[in-house]
Predict the structure of Cellulose-binding protein.
Amino acid sequence: MPRRTRARLRRLWRSGLVAALTMVVAAVFASPSAAANRQADHPSPDWTPPTQYAQGLDEVWRHMESTYGNLLGFRNYGWDQLMANGGRLQYCVRWESNTPVTTQMRDQINASIQRQWSKWFEGLRGWGNFPYASVPVQVVGWAARDRSLLQWNDNSVDLYIGNLDGAGAPRCAPACDRFYHQDGNYSQCPGGAARHFDQSLWLTDGFGGGAGGDWGQRMGREYYMGAVNQDNIHILLHEMGHTLGLDDFYDWTPTGVSNFLMRAGSATQITEFDRWMSRDFWRHLRSRYGL
Ligand SMILES: [Zn+2]
């Protein structure tokens, strides 16, 4: 991916962080002693990564701590969404295109998101008190410019037609969007909490590369529909990594590894190193869920 796109990814992710930080109390994470404790806990009984990854993983965590001052104060990682729902994730698809969507395409998209999230979460199964053996993913809403683009008549998903964001892109109702309702109050969502969505899969004609964050993932519509039946949709997998809190590696490489998914362009599927980074993130967050 070109650097311009990469810089954009980082910005988008950070803007998501910043937007959601306004309610967080700074004192919780500003304590130097807390930071010292986090660094000291790496050699611990619950942390036994393979020897060849141990140093690199430690570097990754310290790098994120120094890059993101609120790393452990942020409360809308994909992990938080998952736990708030009791082990499920719900989606809105933002169809920023004038290409019609058949029922088959709709169902392929739901299956593709499920398949990619399962690849991340299977690395957590049975590990570090992660409480779910599998994570169901359901698309509950679709947004499009015009009803005629969505070629089904059943009511299996909520439709949001002509609801555009400030830049003119179709979106599902903000009242149903966790990004705006992290307190879990979906009382203004037409379908209530059961039809809220945690993330958006935003598919845009002509969009290069990808973007990801707590709000979801965005990719080119052409890329996505060309890859929708692939086992590994690698840009989506990478952007989902950002939803889990994982960082980019544009300007440095951890000791002992060279090719892995979160180092964009160097791998097309989740590697063991990516898996261990996700486990490291989970083990640092799990105490907030009492696990
Ligand atoms: Zn990235």
User: Anything to note?
Assistant: The pocket of zinc ion is lined by residues 9, 238, 242, 248, 264 (CB under 6 Å).
